[in-house]
Amino acid sequence: MASNTNESSKAVVVRFLEVFSTGNVPGILEQLHDDATWWVSGRLKGLSGTYTKIQLAPLLLGATELYKTGALRIVPLSMIAEGDRVAVEAESYAELKNGKVYNNRYHFVFELAGDKIMRVREYMDTVHAYETFLAPSAQ
């Protein structure tokens, strides 16, 4: 498959983040190549590590159950593209059903295969993720 131009690569990623921000898990998965992987930085048990497309589905479904609106909005703040790779600085926002707010900053590297996402590397504030999703609630 021919390489994407920088602008078409950015457009694929923008579209993906738009779909991701709806919480529509089947729609999100449709944007991923069948052999896609998603790597999350850090050492947070249950969150960090590498996920295949098949492994990502239950993780996303579980997460959407936590959000008041059923979705984590991810807004790209800046993008740099070179061929089939796109680097993105982004910010997320979601109010959780338990009253917490998840508002993280990210650096993503997306690798594309045509109009599908092949690989994602996600770097974020893992302490904020832990405190929001994994830390025991204060009693």
Automatic annotation (TrEMBL):
Name the InterPro entries for this protein: NTF2-like_dom_sf, SnoaL-like
| Protein's UniProt name | SnoaL-like domain-containing protein
Give the species: Pandoraea terrae
- SnoaL-like domain mapped to chain residues: 13-119
